[in-house]
Design goal:
This protein is an alpha+beta fold and 76 residues long. Helices cover 20% and strands 22% of the residues. The chain has a domain at 2-39: YefM-like domain (YefM-like fold). Strands 1-2-3 form a 3-stranded mixed sheet.
Length: 76
């Protein structure tokens, strides 16, 4: 649901509008009847990463960073 409010109302009732936005509502702020901004809830923050979460699932070959051999001719 999107509600439109004018700039004066947005300045006067910003705290109340933010409470509504935190509940999931979108608020359009208009100046002289023309929409100029949109208050929307932010996406929830990503969960903290846990080091070692993929331990034992990844294999890196011992020669992974060796130089690439030179080829005399490249063919597909």
């Amino acid at each position: 649901m999107t509600t439109q409010v004018n700039v004066h109302e947005a300045k006067t009732h910003l705290s109340k509008l933010l409470q509504r936005v935190m509940k999931g509502e979108k608020i359009t702020i208009a100046k002289y009847g023309k929409p100029v901004a949109l208050l929307t809830p932010l996406d929830p923050p990503a969960p903290d990463r846990v080091p070692g979460n993929d331990a034992g699932k990844v294999f890196i070959a011992p020669d992974f960073d060796d130089p690439v051999p030179e080829f005399a001719e490249y063919t597909e």
